[in-house]
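Backbone-to-sequence.
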């Protein structure tokens, strides 16, 4: 039996070369280097401290056996209009150096310490003192393009800790480069015709390993490329909608590097599809990978499954962190098997990257795990990915996206939110339990008001339980109903209840961060409520809005959404006399009766027809369409439903349905914006700016959601109408629990 030396604490293996010394909150590497959590910065030292407590500074100490240094990492639980409030840790080099009294780190020292501390942070486990693992590590500041820059931004995904523990992994290599490697863009000096490009491609595909180097050297003058000494990166061809690159250094030649470069954001990864594969330059043979499968060639595509070494991955990482930013926008011709004409040659333009993403290239914990790395030189950008990235560093998040929710006015002193167009208002009346801290839960009593009535609402904000989203908000309609009865609030009609619920749902989803009630919601769950003209305590709704809306279309004044929600839907037999008052409905029922007369499977399809209680709308299985699973799967039958009322006829092609229960055909997921086709009268167009009109949407979605009354499944609707317009990114899931 091995007995540890006296006074030496035993560490717990975590992943790769990392172990956890739990008593000291210290992550220890197999060579003795360690990163220790020292604690949270004192509250008095934090500028702008607020009761919400959504940003706190943590102090870590990194000791790589050569130098010890303290770093400040910000624990961030911050509102984002683009994402459901992910938990982020942000390593701030500028603040860390200032707190440590260090003017700057030289390049060699910074690279070694940066690789070390980032490796430790992405592997940091969930601990009682530091809480949940973050979704990613954000890093600001560092050496970039030969100089120290505060405006240099990176994010790392967290490592999967379910990987193997292996203390035999190679120890980290010593960083010997005293200055940053200088990369430069080299334009093409020779023109190549389409015939030359095809010929070069064919020669590379047929060449033996000993002839590859000469062909590659001859290619360099004909292609724009990046160069740093003996290292090169050259665009080789277009394949599968992405650019395949040729990488050359003093040891290997490989074309297994691919990237999507059609946008300013480049996405790099290592692929196994290649034209030439990987060549050992010194031996002039195919490169011998450790524990690799034998390369296979299928047609003109070679499959190579070897795993690159940690040293090569570090070289590729340096290229992406420093070299790619020297690229200049250029248009060139590349071989492309998908193109037509010009002998399989395609014109493509490659812009200078604005953001670079490395997928499964950056190794951590030795060789046992890889993480995604995203790099940017600025936080500018208007697309969704740019905003997501900048949110990890934004120190002044907007409390409410007023530009897109301009009808809502939040009064911070009164904790109320009002819609100026309807005079509907939601006010936080009191805190029943809990606090506004992001780590704690809270229960509050809200009050809804309009010109005619008021209604109390019980709202619960759960504490954070996951790192990818904040604790959910729960609107408990059952508890709210009891609270109003106990408080003597006059009851409201079902129609007014629907109006109240619709406004309150959107108002709560737009509620900003407050010190008293805590962080705003990433989603809203509703318990109980009115459904099909009755109170249903087991009804469950889960909704997410993204605060992205388009204008509402003017109403024709012919349809009241709240009134239609009171009308139940019931299954019917085509031959039954339902007494429908509408000629259109009567005609549709006669067609269904005639079609069903010869239907041998009428028992299976009887439940697939529903009639609204007023007899003015039906929703039924109209027919079938034959689809084929991508890319070349077997054909299968998918249902086509029809909604018909006094004004419109709409066909619905559901995105997902229960193909295993053909007797119920329960709809599982529906996107009305992409699944509706039909003719609308008297409305001129079914769609306005890629969305169904509000009246059409409410009619069809009400009919769709009515089917939840007969099954115990959940139904998801993608694309919702909110109080301010159509939100194509919003989703609502409906569940009716049955005992």
């Amino acid at each position: 039996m091995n007995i540890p030396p006296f006074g030496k604490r035993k560490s717990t293996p975590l992943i790769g070369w990392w172990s956890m010394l739990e008593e000291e909150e210290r992550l220890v590497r197999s060579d003795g280097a360690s990163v220790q959590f020292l604690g949270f910065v004192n509250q008095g030292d934090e500028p702008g401290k607020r009761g919400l407590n959504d940003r706190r500074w943590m102090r870590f100490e990194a000791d790589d056996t050569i130098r010890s240094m303290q770093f400040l990492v910000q624990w961030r639980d911050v509102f984002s209009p683009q994402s459901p409030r992910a938990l982020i840790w942000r390593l701030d080099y500028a603040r860390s150096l200032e707190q440590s009294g260090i003017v700057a780190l030289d390049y060699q020292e910074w690279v070694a310490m940066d690789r070390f501390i980032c490796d430790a942070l992405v592997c940091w486990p969930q601990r009682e003192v530091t809480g949940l693992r973050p979704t990613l590590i954000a890093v600001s500041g560092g050496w970039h393009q030969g100089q120290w820059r505060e405006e240099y931004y990176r994010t790392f995904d967290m490592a999967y800790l379910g990987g193997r523990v292996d203390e035999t992994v190679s120890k980290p290599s010593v960083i010997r480069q005293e200055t940053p490697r200088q990369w430069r863009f080299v334009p093409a000096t020779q023109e190549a015709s389409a015939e030359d490009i095809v010929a070069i491609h064919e020669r590379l595909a047929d060449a033996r390993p000993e002839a590859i180097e000469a062909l590659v050297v001859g290619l360099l003058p004909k292609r724009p490329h990046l160069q740093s000494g003996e290292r090169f990166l050259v665009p080789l061809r277009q394949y599968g909608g992405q650019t395949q690159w040729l990488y050359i250094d003093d040891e290997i030649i490989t074309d297994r590097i691919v990237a999507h470069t059609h946008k300013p954001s480049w996405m790099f990864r290592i692929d196994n599809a290649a034209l030439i594969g990987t060549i050992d330059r010194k031996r002039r043979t195919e490169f011998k990978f450790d524990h690799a499968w034998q390369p296979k060639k299928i047609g003109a595509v070679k499959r190579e499954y070897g795993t690159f070494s940690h040293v090569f991955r570090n070289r590729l990482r340096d290229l992406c962190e420093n070299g790619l930013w020297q690229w200049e926008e250029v248009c060139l011709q590349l071989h492309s098997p998908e193109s037509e004409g010009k002998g399989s040659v395609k014109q493509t333009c490659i812009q200078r990257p604005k953001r670079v993403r490395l997928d499964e290239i950056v190794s951590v914990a030795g060789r046992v795990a890889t993480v995604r790395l995203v790099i940017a030189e600025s936080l500018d950008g208007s697309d969704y990915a740019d905003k997501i990235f900048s949110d990890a560093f934004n120190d002044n998040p907007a409390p409410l996206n007023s530009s897109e929710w301009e009808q809502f006015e939040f009064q911070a002193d009164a904790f109320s939110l009002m819609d100026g167009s309807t005079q509907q208002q939601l006010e936080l009346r009191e805190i029943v339990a809990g606090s506004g801290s992001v780590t704690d839960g809270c229960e509050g009593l809200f009050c809804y008001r309009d010109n005619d009535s008021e209604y109390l609402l019980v709202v619960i904000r759960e504490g954070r339980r996951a790192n990818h989203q904040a604790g959910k908000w729960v609107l408990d309609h059952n508890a709210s109903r009891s609270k109003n009865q106990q408080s003597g609030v006059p009851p409201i009609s079902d129609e007014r209840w629907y109006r109240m619920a619709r406004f309150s749902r959107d108002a709560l989803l737009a509620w900003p961060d407050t010190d008293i009630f805590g962080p705003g919601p990433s989603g809203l769950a509703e318990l109980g409520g009115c459904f099909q003209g009755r109170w249903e305590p087991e009804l469950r709704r889960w909704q997410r809005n993204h605060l992205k809306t388009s204008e509402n279309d003017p109403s024709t004044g012919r349809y009241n959404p709240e009134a239609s929600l009171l009308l139940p839907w019931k299954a019917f037999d085509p031959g039954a006399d339902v007494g429908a008052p509408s000629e259109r409905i009567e005609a549709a029922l006669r067609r269904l009766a005639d079609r069903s007369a010869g239907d041998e499977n009428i028992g299976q399809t009887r439940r697939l027809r529903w009639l609204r209680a007023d007899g003015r709308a039906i929703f039924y299985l109209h027919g079938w369409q034959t689809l084929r699973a991508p890319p070349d799967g077997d054909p299968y039958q998918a249902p086509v439903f029809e909604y018909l009322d006094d004004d419109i006829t709409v066909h619905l092609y559901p995105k997902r349905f229960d193909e295993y229960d053909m007797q119920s055909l329960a709809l599982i997921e529906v996107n009305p914006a992409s699944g509706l086709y039909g003719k609308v009268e008297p409305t001129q167009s079914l769609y306005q700016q890629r969305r169904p009109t509000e009246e059409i949407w409410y009619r069809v979605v009400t009919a769709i959601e009515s089917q939840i009354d007969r099954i115990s499944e959940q139904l998801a609707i993608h694309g919702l109408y909110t109080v301010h317009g159509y939100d194509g990114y919003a989703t609502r899931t409906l569940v009716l629990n049955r005992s």
